[in-house]
Amino acid sequence: MKPKELTLRALILGALITTVFTAANVYLGLKVGLTFASSIPAAVISMAILSAFKDSSILENNIVQTVASAAGTLSAIIFVLPGLVIVGWWVGFPFWQSFLICLSGGVLGVVFTIPLRRALVTNSDLPYPEGVAAAEVLKVGSGTRGETKDETGEAREGLRAVILGSVASAGLAIISATRFIGAGLGGVIRLGGGASTGYDIAWSLALLGAGHLVGLSVGLAMLVGQVISWVIAVPILTSMQPAAAGVSLADHTIGIWRTQVRFLGAGTIAVAAVYTLVRLAKPVMGGLVSTLVASRAVATADDTDRDISPPWIYALTAVCLVITAYLAYTFAKSTVLAPSAMKLTLIAIPFVLIIGFVIAGVCGYMAGLIGASNSPISGVGILSIVICASVITLAVAPTVDTRQALVAFALFVTAIVFACATISNDNLQDLKTGQLVGASPMRQQIALIVGVAAGASVIPFVLNLLAKAYGFAGAPNIGVIAANSRRGDRRVQEDPNPTFGCGNRHLPSYVSDVRGDCRRGDRALV
């Protein structure tokens, strides 16, 4: 009898695990600028829990890790969506808009990579490091292809390790919050010749775990970036630009880093992304050709080589584009861009469709080459926002009144494309795991869509919680408990009960309204 695979309990367990890993990924992503693949820890937890059922199998455990990994990967939307708060357009994350952005972009990421499965997974020599590792974990815990149970107890040991690690990390965080021990050490150092630099050393078991997950190469890359920034660039630039009268050494040093040094990193990411796109042009085009050939072939009866049918792919794509059109039109209609709302919507739809599909192929290939955690997806995001902003400004000329609204609209549309990129970055990795354990691609693709919906429903709540607790660097940070922005701290003290108005219920009254009908505008905050 064929082992159970796509079951209700697997979907529910995957969705529950999703809640935890999505919250962890959002927090770590905002804190250190990277997210981790959650498929392996999800597989360990799944095997430990489902081992209580006699009819559980490796295929069912694979569905659980597929759901959890899709939702965990979707949390990378944090690299774009908070931009709407940072520019002062939102002061929180409205649930339905945030949910639909993640849902529509995530489902597009699933359906766009379905045609690429045979070219990039089945008939490819790409290593898929995380996909292969997840398959090995599933085989060790459940037995090859579900033929044996977890007699070794390794799944339970893995779950015990996950629980102990969580308790230890939470305990350290609580002790640090009570000031019994220091959570970190930071400061600014004055060097010779007017130069200065800074240091910030944090002690966190969560960061230690994230470093273990992403690996030594990524950690070394981050260390090199820190050396370039704080040992080389910041001292040189601060010596060339002495602090103005009345400006403290700390404010001057951090200001140099924020306004100049950070853009060195952004430029590096952009160049790397362009270089990667050029290198991947040939294999991606080859994958598309193979896909077109496969789509004309007779459908296979082999369950391990069957995808979601083309009619369903077209239908899901159409639904997602309708949602995209609705989101873009209603967003533009509520701003000073209202006269151009239809024009901007007609730009947004093909942008999401074409750029989203290209990015899906690129991100899927990169994930197969170096892994989802190591994939430079932020560089793809930078290129997407540059392209989107360029196209939009060609259609609607920016003015003093429309500039801020155009920035917000570009971020809004790019968030959908970025959600597509994050899921495509993970989708093929999961399908590789499924291929190695004998799973059905079609059932995995359904599980991926369920995972997208689960993650999309969690992300707005987690983002709102973190925005309220910590705020975002460079944002107004209204009513934030421990704001990151110094200006935001002063504003919280001056106006503890801000009102929301100016025709935009997500915009505080003291932030300059793009339509110019707010009298309490403070353009310095925007």
Shape: globular
Strand content: under 5%
Compute the number of strand runs.
2
Q: Strand arrangement, largest sheet?
A: 1-2
Largest sheet: 2 strands, antiparallel
Distance between the termini: 63 Å
Radius of gyration: 24 Å
Order of secondary-structure elements:
HHHHHHHHEEHHHHHHHHH
- Give average pLDDT, whole number: 76
Give the uncertain stretches in residue-range form.
Answer: 144-152, 483-526
* Percentage of residues assigned to helices: 55-70%
The number of domains: 2
Overall structural class, as computed from helix and strand content, comes to: mainly alpha
Summed up, the helix count is 17
Summary keywords:
single chain, disordered C terminus, 526 residues, mainly alpha, 67% helix, 2 strands, 2 domains
Overview of this structure, please?
With 526 residues, the chain is an all-alpha fold. It has 2 domains: 8-152 and 307-469, no CATH class; 185-200 and 211-267, no CATH class. It is built from 17 helices and 2 strands. A two-stranded antiparallel ribbon has the order 1-2. Strand 1 and strand 2 form a beta hairpin. Helix 3 packs parallel to helix 16 (441-469), helix 5 packs across helix 15 (403-437) and helix 12 packs across helix 13 (341-370). The longest helix has 48 residues, at 249-296. The radius of gyration is 24 Å and the shape is globular. It starts with 7 loop residues before the first helix and ends in a 32-residue tail after the last helix. Mean pLDDT is 76; it is low at 144-152 and 483-526.
